[in-house]
Amino acid sequence: MSALRARLSAILLAVCLLFTGQALTTPQRAAAADPGYLMAHFIGERATGQQIYFSHSADGLHWSDLNGGEMALRSTVGTRGVRDPALVRSPDGSKYWIIATDLCIDCGQTWSQSINDGSRNLVVWESTDLVNWSEPRLLNVAGAIPDGRNAWAPEAIWNPATNDYILYWATNKPLNGATKHRIYYARTSDFHSITTPQVYIERPGTQEIIDTQIVEMPSGVGDYRYVRASGDGQITLEGSNSILGTWTNLGNLSGIGLTGSQVEGPMWMKFRDRNEWTLYLDQYASGRGYMPVTTTNPSASGTYKLPASGSYNLGGTKKRHGSILNLTAAEESRVQARWPNTTVNRLQSYNFQDRYVRHANMDVRIDPNVSPAADSQFRLRTGLAGSGTVSFESVNFPGYFLRHAGYDFQLAYNDGTAQFAADATFRKVAGLADASWSSFQSYNHPDRYMRHYGYQLRLDPITTATGRGDATFHVTN
Fold first, then answer.
1. Taking a C-beta distance cutoff of 8 angstroms, is the pair 473, 437 a contact?
2. What is the largest CA-CA distance in the chain?
3. SS3 440
4. Whole-number Cα distances in Å, 3 to 11, 15, 139, 219
5. How would you class 302 by CB atoms within 10 Å of its CB: exposed for 0-12, middle for 13-18, buried for 19 or more?
6. Peptide bond before residue 154 is cis, with ω within 30 degrees of 0
């Protein structure tokens, strides 16, 4: 029986697909057992809205914001804003990437500027576990396109025919008498280097195309292995049996009243427990964010259905152009543990009660009237070095923690090392000056405590009454 079960498992794994466009090759993957979904998205036009946000759903239709509805990752490179994130999982499940548009509208650049002289880069994060991410880096994809003027709305899909990823995005440039956005592609194995970009999708005349996303079909569904949805004046559907081969027009969604003048940012999701897909569409024209349309055959435009009233809920934030990953049980557990809706707190000084711990240019001090207020806001996470301890994660720079180095405090990005974890971990104890307040004892230097001195935050031994006051704080909202 064990041999039979093993053979059946192998057959199941061979036919399963990860419906973000990659084969399901990890042993734990079985579509019916996958517990939920992760959406990466942005939420709006402000600098803080154009960052990476995560949401979770158990059924693919009702979504909850992770991390209290605050950003999960922040870009500190390029324009310092990101839109249109794509979540990519490697075929063996050992690597993940987020690739996003390097764009921050009204953060120093207008729409016109970003269209005609925007960033030629994409922003890339990398992870081995879906929760601990590298610092963001820039990948120049449009610099090699003569007179390429920007790089928008990236996506990537594993291509078994070439044994690497097809990375594709929109670039505005003059070509054949028309200056417009076309979809370009390049091949990559690591999202560090790419082949020379080539035109991938172009519409006739002056018609632009910006958003497109490909989904891989299981055997027996429709006539094509791949289906793509694109925003090109319509929401156009196309099918192909090869990612880089010929694509056939399959119609559009105008039959259910949806055109490119109303919706954009097509985002595929396969329901884990049934042969049904949803194509999420961003209702940008009405400012309402995503809505799902469903189908049992993505290649048949006449099978798409508008959602019934009350059949879905997108949660507390507006979901804008993003990407959905079907989670394994292990991935879901890690994601929910990393980004729970932990209360946002401030640390008030005991002996200067108008002052709060805050970061400023990555230095840490106590100040009154902190502006922006988020510079003094932290989430008290389970300590990076172990349970029964706490670590302080910045709200407006997620992934950055209060950390001592040379007994001085700084706001630093978690590099995943044991040294960082120990330096950023503290034991919360009764306040040294007032037991109803709190003090924070260093995890790796237990004779020292967090304290302010000359308004700067330090890690010191405490031997005097003044020191006890300096090392005492109130954890408050």
1. yes
2. 78
3. strand
4. 12, 19, 46, 25
5. exposed
6. no
Assigned token pair, 398: 């997620």
d(CA 162, CA 176): 29
- In the structure encoding, which two tokens stand for residue 409, read together? 């405090």
Query: SS3 of 196, please?
Result: coil
DSSP state of 106: T
Q: Per-residue pLDDT tens, the chain, 477 aa: give them.
A: 333 333 333 333 333 433 344 433 333 343 445 689 999 999 988 899 999 999 999 999 999 999 999 999 999 999 999 999 999 999 999 999 999 999 999 887 899 999 999 999 999 999 999 999 999 999 999 999 999 999 999 999 999 999 999 999 999 999 999 999 999 999 999 999 999 999 999 999 999 999 999 999 998 888 999 999 999 999 999 999 999 999 999 999 999 999 999 999 999 999 999 999 999 999 999 988 899 999 999 999 999 999 999 999 999 999 999 999 999 999 999 999 999 999 999 999 999 999 999 999 999 999 999 999 999 999 999 999 988 999 999 999 999 999 999 999 999 999 999 999 999 999 999 999 999 999 999 999 999 999 999 999 999 999 999 999 999 999 999
Report residue 458 as tokens. Answer: 């330090």
Backbone φ, ψ for residue 4 (5° rounding): -65, -45
pTM summary value: 0.89
149/425 Cα distance (integer angstroms): 45
Two tokens, residue 355: 């002052």
Report how far residue 305's alpha carbon sits from residue 325's, in angstroms, rounded to the nearest whole number: 22
Can you tell me whether residue 6 is helix, strand or coil?
helix
Q: Which of 475, 398, 432, 445 is nearest to 75 (CA)?
A: 398
Alpha-carbon torsion (42, 45, 51, 53), positive or negative: negative
Residue 334 backbone phi and psi in degrees, to 5: -65, -45
SS3 letters across 15-74: HCEECCCEECCCCCCCHHHCCEEEEEEECCCCCCCCCEEEEEECCCCEEEECHHHCCCEC
Cα radius of gyration (the chain)? 25
By CB atoms closer than 10 A (0-12, 13-18, 19+), residue 337 is exposed
How many other C-beta atoms are found inside a 10 Å radius of the C-beta of residue 441? 19
